[in-house]
Write a structure and sequence with these properties.
Layout lengths: L1 E5 L11 H15 L3 E7 L6 H4 L3 E10 L2 E12 L2 E7 L1 H4 L10 H14 L1 H4 L5 E5 L5 H10 L9 E6 L7 E2 L3 H4 L8 H4 E2 L2 E3 H8 L2 E4 L2 H6 L3 H4 L3 H6 L4 E3 L27 H13 L10 E5 L8 H13 L4 E6 L3 H13 L4 E5 L3 H10 L2 E4 L9 H7 L3 E5 L2 H6 L11 E3 L4 H16 L1 H12 L5 H17 L2
Parallel strand pairs: 1-2, 1-6, 2-5, 6-7, 7-11, 11-12, 13-14, 13-16, 14-15, 16-17, 17-18
Antiparallel strand pairs: 3-4, 4-5, 8-10, 9-10
């Protein structure tokens, strides 16, 4: 079986979020299971030179972009034993930043068309093209409209994964012919609520649609979660399923992680206390291994439940001896709030801003409780990473959080959960966790149970393989 994994970002080349981690890990696991998986992504200006030095030029071709044709260079490199193809066009990709440019619709229309056009030049005909998020949503659309009946391309199946339905690729209908190169007669494929919606087009045209957790696959049929797309998703619900993402258990391994102050294992947890003391020292918190640390590593946006934290944090600090550490970047009003709280609770709260991978690892390892009260969470990786480091999650029961964290109130779970999006419910869950921390013998049992959870990519890869095989069998 041959799979082409189509993505707008991938580790270690370029990353803005969880998609890059998926694209850097899942193809490796598929390859280990004897699946011929290759990855294609744009050759961005931001890709480090040391990675560019290992790329070799494969071919060049001319790609149709509406009424014009554009140069496309194809470069090849390897990472983790997987072949990566990088699509070069300096007009579209020789600029800083992956997204947010005025012509993103045209940039990713070019990329989507180039993904299909390059295949005969590579002599690589995939059985499955697996696309991700709106930046590659036009691949299934272009395939259906222009390639599905061509002798060389016939028989390819398409899978489209929604990582976050909030981002849909919505543009004015005037782009249809002049930018996307799609005839006016095919407007109904992309049109939704009076505009072009690329994600909607992929839902229409892909053979199967997946989300990054089983619960999220059900939630997006509800208007509260669907960001306006509930109509088409309900109509196409027969083709939608959820497969939970995994994490890279080699990178996130407390026994070998070079970012930590001290290693630790389920059999020897002493290093976890050492990490706490060193992090407290670095962040100018009171140094005491017995004081519980509540950690957050998150984007500072409303979706992550930070309005609940803002409503409840004073009560948590006043009714416990806990310390609170947050790392993230995002909205300025949340930054100002956490700066104020740091000043108010000097020595107990520390707010760190920015994307600092080594510090995030230290927070995962040193914290006792990991707070993740998301309003929506398609999958979430942070709660799985926290478990790997023996840090007990407190989460709201939504999306992937519901699929990965089970409340330990019955003595069997791996964390603490709350259902309603309400600050008092979140406060109650946090206080239950802090009370559980006081029973140190029981808490160690919970830590070991958390560290035993398996959220490796191998489990996810097996589910994708079953999906691929089902598509091929029924084609």
């Amino acid at each position: 079986m041959k799979v082409l994994y189509c993505t707008s970002e991938a580790m270690p080349f370029a990353a803005t979020g969880g998609l890059a981690e998926v694209a850097g890990s899942l193809p490796q696991e598929l390859r280990l299971r004897l699946i011929g998986c290759r990855v294609v992504m744009p050759l961005y200006e931001d890709i480090p030179q040391e990675l560019r030095d290992n790329m070799k030029f494969v071919t060049s071709l001319s790609v149709p972009v509406a009424w014009r044709r554009q140069y496309c260079g194809v470069f090849e490199t390897h990472s983790g034993g997987v072949i990566y193809y990088l699509i070069d066009n300096q007009y579209y990709f020789k600029r800083h930043g992956l997204y947010g440019h005025y012509d993103d619709a045209e940039r990713f229309a070019f990329f989507s068309r180039a993904v299909i056009e390059m295949l005969p030049y590579l002599d690589f005909k995939p059985d499955i093209i697996h696309c991700n998020d709106w930046q590659t949503a036009l691949v299934p659309v272009y395939y259906r409209l222009f390639y599905a009946n061509s002798d060389w391309f016939k028989g390819i199946r398409t899978v489209f994964t929604i990582h976050n339905i909030q981002y849909q690729g919505k543009y004015g209908k005037e782009l249809l012919e002049d930018v996307l190169g799609i005839p006016q007669s095919d407007l109904p494929i992309l049109e939704y609520s009076g505009c072009i919606n690329m994600l909607k087009g992929a839902v229409e045209c892909a053979n199967r649609v997946t989300t990054v957790s089983p619960t999220y696959a059900k939630e997006i049929l509800d208007p509260w979660y669907a960001y306006g797309l509930e109509g088409i998703l309900q109509q196409r619900s027969w083709k939608i399923s959820g497969i939970l993402n995994g994490i890279n258990v080699s990178i996130y391994n407390p026994a070998t992680d070079k970012n930590l102050y001290a290693p630790f294992t389920p059999d020897d947890l002493s290093g976890k206390a050492s990490n706490k003391l060193e992090l407290q020292k670095r962040l100018k918190l009171e140094q005491d291994a017995d004081i519980p640390i509540i950690g957050m590593v998150t984007r500072l946006v409303a979706q992550k439940g930070l309005d609940l934290v803002r409503e409840a944090l004073d009560n948590i600090m006043q009714n416990s001896d806990a310390q609170f550490v947050i790392l993230g970047s995002g909205d300025w009003d949340y930054k100002n709030y956490f700066r104020d709280m740091q000043a108010k609770y000097s020595g107990r709260i520390c707010a760190c801003f920015g994307f600092i991978p080594e510090l995030s690892h230290k927070i995962y390892a040193a914290s006792d409780i990991f707070l993740m009260p998301s309003k929506t969470e398609p999958c979430g990786l942070s709660q799985m990473i926290a478990l790997r480091y023996g840090t007990i999650p407190v989460v709201r029961e939504t999306g992937g959080l519901k699929d990965t964290i089970e409340d330990s109130g019955d003595g069997k779970g791996n964390g603490f959960t709350f259902k309603t999006y309400d600050s008092s419910d979140m406060y109650g869950a946090v206080m239950r966790a802090l009370n559980g921390y006081e029973n140190r013998e029981g808490w160690e049992v919970l830590i070991r149970r958390a560290m035993a959870c398996d959220f490796s990519w191998g489990r996810s890869a097996n589910e994708y393989i079953r999906l691929y095989r089902g598509l091929i069998k029924n084609s």
